[in-house]
């Protein structure tokens, strides 16, 4: 019995050594393959730069691309897109397209792999055309993650491709893609082409994030036709919507916002009071200097600071208030002193 246990233990030990040896061999083979791949990519990169510098002709460059591993070529194109611009890049892309490498790039999206897939999506902007647009629309509508859908949407917008903006926004929202800063850039690019959609989203989108992004896009576009919608949003029950409404009103800079700004300065939410103060300065609402002075005694530091900054932008009347309050003790006096000293510096 003891002998059987000993043999069994020995067999387990040998099996463990065998498994370890296989793993070590596999790692060595993978590392060797990676080194060969990097060497090949480095050699190909050298030829590409030689081609761009007119040191080798188009036939030699085409031959080098055709002989190289297609995946390596695509990986190199993904990286080189970030450092090359202009006619040189276009010549290289024309060669890559002639070898059907854009198809390889699109096929990669059929087997998503995180950051690699997002990089592949961004590189598709190098290959504009109907096939690329069709692939990107598929990703936007049914891509496996928010990052991929958002990247595809951004590239479609960059390519000025015709698209269903309402459907695109719904798809991004479904995947949770509206939380990224990139979503704001996409909305800003779309708003001029689809103003009615963004006016509707700003006023009655089913979620707060869509409303905030739509309001931001309308402000960035300077769309004065949105003023009634934005003024209504300034009185919305949701704090984030009210705060964004005042950011948008600041960009629109229309004096008709004065009454809304006055209400905003007395809002229950400090975030809204802060944005209302900045809005008053952006529009130049000197008639609200009295309301702003009251906010110098606000319980929240950010409100006091933004209010003092706003007063410096409202001319001599605002500065006079700060100078007077700087002579007083307390938090308002200290804030006024600090802002005046910044201006003096």
What does this 3D model show about the protein?
There is one protein chain. With 345 residues, this protein is mostly helical. Helices cover 75% and strands 0% of the residues. The protein contains 20 helices and no strands. It has helices spanning 2-52, 58-67, 70-80, 87-98, 101-108, 115-123, 130-142, 146-158, 165-174, 181-190, 195-204, 208-220, 227-233, 239-252, 258-265, 270-283, 289-295, 301-312, 315-326, 331-344. The longest helix has 51 residues, at 2-52. The chain is elongated and about 90 Å long.
In short:
The chain is an all-alpha fold and 345 residues long.
Features:
345 residues, mainly alpha, 20 helices, 0% strand
Question: Structural class of the secondary structure composition?
Answer: mainly alpha
Q: Mean of residue pLDDT?
A: 85
Q: Please indicate the percent range of residues in DSSP E strands (runs of 2 or more).
A: under 5%
Q: Low-confidence parts lasting 5 or more residues at pLDDT below 50?
A: none
Gyration radius (Cα, Å) is: 30 Å
Largest sheet: none
Percent helix range:
over 70%
Order of helices and strands: HHHHHHHHHHHHHHHHHHHH
Distance between the termini: 91 Å
Tell me the overall shape. elongated
Number of extended strands: 0
Number of helix segments?
Answer: 20
